[in-house]
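Usage

Read records sequentially. Each one opens with the input sequence:
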Amino acid sequence: MAASKGDKIEVENVNVPGQTSRVDAAKYTEMRAAMLSVLPDSSPGLTHAELCEAVRGRLAESIFPGGKKVMWWSKTVQLDLEAKRIITREPSKPLRWYKR
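and closes with the structure output:
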């Protein structure tokens, strides 16, 4: 089900266990779908820069006009998906992520 404008969704942050924030559900849902469609199923994963570049063409212009805020939203969703154990952070430099 698509989120309506103004709807909020609660997100977690793997770096701050137990803390949640409420963010725009439509942007979260759009970014989550784009990220999960581009992240590989195994190592090596994508760096944050590679992930941002890969999702840009998969985001609806109506939700992310001109690609604005892609970096912020990709980090927010990455931290949430990592906290929910949907994606894995590799112990590498630079950091990389892939789906579990």
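Summary fields computed downstream for this record:
- The mean pLDDT is 93.
- Residues 25-38 form the longest helix (14 residues).
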